[in-house]
C-alpha cells in the first residue's frame, strides 16, 4: 500500500470526474464546480488542524487523507496537473531531476 502515490489518486480522480456515476463524490464535486470543491478543501484543512492540535494521531491520518484528496480535486477542477506542483516543489529544492526520477519509479 505504501506504493500508492498521489499520481495514482490524481488518475483515479480524473477517471471519476466525468464518469456520470451518481454515487461518485468526485463526479459530484466536479459538477458543482470550484466554489464547492474549494469549500470542501477548506473544511478538510480546518479538520486536519483540529486533529493535529488535539494530538489525535488517527484523526490526523484520516483528515490528512481527506485533505489531500480534496486538494487534488481542486487542482483537477482548476485544470492544474499535479506535476506542475511537484515541479514547483522541486524548483524550491534547488536540485533538478528529482520529480522526473520519482515519476519513472512510479511507472515501475
Ligand atoms: N479519497 C477519497 C475521499 N476522501 C474523502 N472522500 C469523500 O469526501 C466526502 C466528504 O465528507 P464530508 O462528511 O465532509 O461531506 P458531506 O458532509 O458528506 O458533504 P456535504 O454535506 O459537505 O456536501 C465524503 O463523501 C467522503 O467519502 C473521498 N471520496 C473519494 N476518494 C477517492 O476517490 C475515489 C473515487 O471516489 P468516487 O468519486 O466517490 O467514486 C475513491 O475510490 C477514493 O480513492
Automatic annotation (TrEMBL):
Sorted UniProt keywords: Amino-acid biosynthesis, ATP-binding, Cytoplasm, Histidine biosynthesis, Hydrolase, Nucleotide-binding
The keyword Magnesium is assigned to this record: no
Main location: cytoplasm
GO biological process: L-histidine biosynthetic process
Record pathway: Amino-acid biosynthesis; L-histidine biosynthesis; L-histidine from 5-phospho-alpha-D-ribose 1-diphosphate: step 2/9
Enzyme Commission code: 3.6.1.31
Species this protein is from: Mesorhizobium wenxiniae
Keyword Cytoplasm: yes
Family: Belongs to the PRA-PH family.
Broad class of enzyme this protein falls into: hydrolase
Protein name in UniProt: Phosphoribosyl-ATP pyrophosphatase
InterPro entries with a match to the protein in the record: HisE (IPR008179), PRib-ATP_PPHydrolase-like (IPR021130)
Molecular-function annotations in GO: ATP binding; phosphoribosyl-ATP diphosphatase activity
Amino acid at each position: 500500500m505504501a506504493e500508492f502515490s498521489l499520481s495514482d489518486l490524481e488518475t483515479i480522480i480524473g477517471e471519476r470526474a466525468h464518469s456520470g456515476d451518481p454515487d461518485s463524490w468526485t463526479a459530484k464535486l466536479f459538477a458543482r464546480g470550484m466554489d464547492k470543491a474549494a469549500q470542501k478543501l477548506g473544511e478538510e484543512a480546518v479538520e486536519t488542524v483540529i486533529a493535529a492540535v488535539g494530538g489525535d494521531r488517527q484523526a490526523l491520518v484520516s483528515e490528512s487523507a481527506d485533505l489531500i484528496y480534496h486538494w487534488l480535486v481542486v487542482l483537477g477542477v482548476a485544470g492544474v496537473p499535479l506535476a506542475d506542483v511537484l515541479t514547483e516543489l522541486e524548483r524550491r529544492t534547488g536540485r533538478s531531476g528529482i520529480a522526473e526520477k520519482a515519476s519513472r519509479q512510479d511507472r515501475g
